[in-house]
Structure formats: structure tokens, C-alpha cells
Amino acid sequence: MNYFYGDLNSDREENRWERWTGHRQEVTTFIGQSLPLLRKTDKMVILGVGNGDDLDFNYLCNLVHELTLVDIDKGSMEKCLSYIPVASSHKIQSLVECDLTGLDQLSYYDQISKLFKSQASMENIVQYLNEIKTQIKRLRILETHVSSYDVVMSSAVYTQIYYIQSLSEFAAYANFYNENEVQSITDAMKVLRDEIIIQYNKLMLSLVKNDGTVILWTDMVRTDQEFVFPEEEFYSLQSEEERIKLIYKMMFEHGREAAITGLLDLYAKLSPEGRKVTSWVWPFNNDRHYITMGLSGTKESMSHK
After folding, report:
1. Which domain of life is it from (predicted)?
2. What's the pTM?
3. Chain centre to alpha carbon of residue 50
4. Which residues, 6 or more positions from 256, have their beta carbon under 8 angstroms from its beta carbon?
5. H/E/C letters for each residue in the chain?
6. How confident is the model at residue 228 (pLDDT cuts 50, 70, 90)?
7. What is the pLDDT of residues 50-72, one digit of tens each?
8. Which of 37-41, 43-47, 247-251, 298-302 is modeled with the greatest confidence?
9. I need a labelling partner for 291 at 20 to 30 A (CA). Which of 27, 79, 176, 254 fits?
10. Chain centroid offset of residue 48 CA
């Protein structure tokens, strides 16, 4: 599976660091708003850190005593580590080739590939996907890191997790199935994707201390020639609340399903007190921009459930 995410992270423009300056500043601002009282001794982990192009590591390393970076792709992690200030390198821990879905533990990618290549029946493929959906609920990921961090951050993970890769692989074999069978298989993949995202949210909440903070940002709505972002309307709104309402409207009309699932699930699991939601435009490349949403807060205590 690592090769897929390596290709995904390496599919980049040479000037991406410069292009993402505004996005990186938005991320930094949101972190600062979410952690106004962060102490120097705090421990932070960033899940799905990738190449690190959206992160200001000078800022982050000044905030914390220890910073743990997690990603599945070794090449991306090496690029990310190159951004770390030399004076702060002693603060960095890295967990490489770490599958945050648990699918590697189940040899999912090998098994689903065998099913596709053997042209297994739609019923067998759907049954296997449903079995995996049940099994991932019992997995333990980063178990030795439970309740270890004051801050858990997630860097645009929802829309990259699982679904794109499996759908891309299935596309090569879709012509062996009729339209209804293709729909049944992709629907089962979506159900599995949503469960993986819910389990990923549970992972984030398991890693953070009881009084710690979860921070994430995710690409929400893609804007391109087919859907043009109403930039003038967005920036003419006077309050963040008005902007969020407009984003919600676009989210449910044009939003990426994985991001919607993850945000709504995590929003309900964070304490209303101090919970923050924000948005900005991420100029991903020349062809497309993403409306991005940030969400942060502390996990809801059991007494409130």
C-alpha cells in the first residue's frame, strides 16, 4: 500500500511550498487559536503528516517539548524531516510506515487484489468488505501511545484514507461486472470507508490525554471549472459564523463524502465548550483549490454522554 501514498505525495508541483504559504499560515493561525495556553512541556503528535508542506515546523517546535510525526510513506517522511530546524531535531520522534486504518494488519490489500484478479463474484467481494468492516472495530492501533499526547493533530487525512486506492484498483476490473454489480461493490467500499473514518476518529481521541486537544483540517469542497468558489460572497461576509454557514451549505451540496463523515462524527465527540470550527481556501495547484475546514476541541467526557 505504501507505494500508492508515495505516488500521491510525490504528485506535486515544484513550487508547492511557496504556493501553500497562505494555507500554511491558515493552519498555523488555527493551531494558535486552538491552543492559547499551550505549555512548552507539552507533547504533540501529527497523524498523516505527509511531506509536511502545510506545517510551519519552526512554530510547532517552539510550542512543544516533543513532537511525534506519523505517516505511512517513508519517502514523504524523509521530505518532511528535512523541514525540521536543526536546533529542534532532538524534539522529533517519527513513526514511519504506520498504517492508521489497520487494514495492513488484516492483509486487506493483498486479499482484495486477489479477489479482483480472480474476477470473484460481486457477492464474494461484498461479503469480504463487510467482514473487514467488522474486523477493523477490534483492531488496536498505536496501542502503546494511548493517552500519551496533550495535542493530537490530523493533516488532511479523511479524503486520502483507503477509498481512493481501492476504487482505483477496482476500476481496472470493473468491466467484468455489470452496472448493478459495480454499484454494489462501490457502495460496500463506501460503507467500509465510513467505518474506517469513524475508527480513525476514535484513534485520535484515544491518543489524546483527558485534558488534551484534538486539531484537524481537511479538504472539504473541490473548486475548479465545474464548481467555482463564490470568493467575493465569502469574503464579503462580516463574521466567521456567516462564513461557516455558507461553507456548510456548500459542504452538503458539493462536499467530499469522506470529509463530511469524519467532521460530523468528530464534531459530536468533542466537548461543546471551547470547540472551534473555521474555514479557508487551500490553493492546491493550478487546476484546483479546496475549501478547507478546521475543527478542534477537547474530547467529550463520559459523564456528558
Report:
1. Bacteria
2. 0.88
3. 10
4. 158, 159, 219, 220, 221, 222
5. CHHHHHHHHHCCCCCHHHHCHHHHHHHHHHHHHHCCCCCCCCEEEEECCCCCCCCCHHHHHHHCCEEEEEECCHHHHHHHHCCCCHHHHHHEEEEECCCCCCCHHHCHHHHHHHHHHCCCCHHHHHHHHHHHHHHHHHCCCCHHHCCCEEEEEEECCHHHCCHHHHHHHHHCCHHHCCHHHHHHHHHHHHHHHHHHHHHHHHHHHHHEEEEEEEEEEEEEEEECCCCCCCHHHHHHCCCHHHHHHHHHHHHHHHCCHHHHHHHHHHHHHECCCCCEEEEEEECCCCCCEEEEEEEEECECCHHHC
6. low
7. 999 999 999 999 999 999 999 99
8. 43-47
9. 79
10. 7
Task: Provide the CB-side half-sphere exposure for 137 (13 A, CA).
Answer: 7
Cell triple for residue 9?
Answer: 505525495
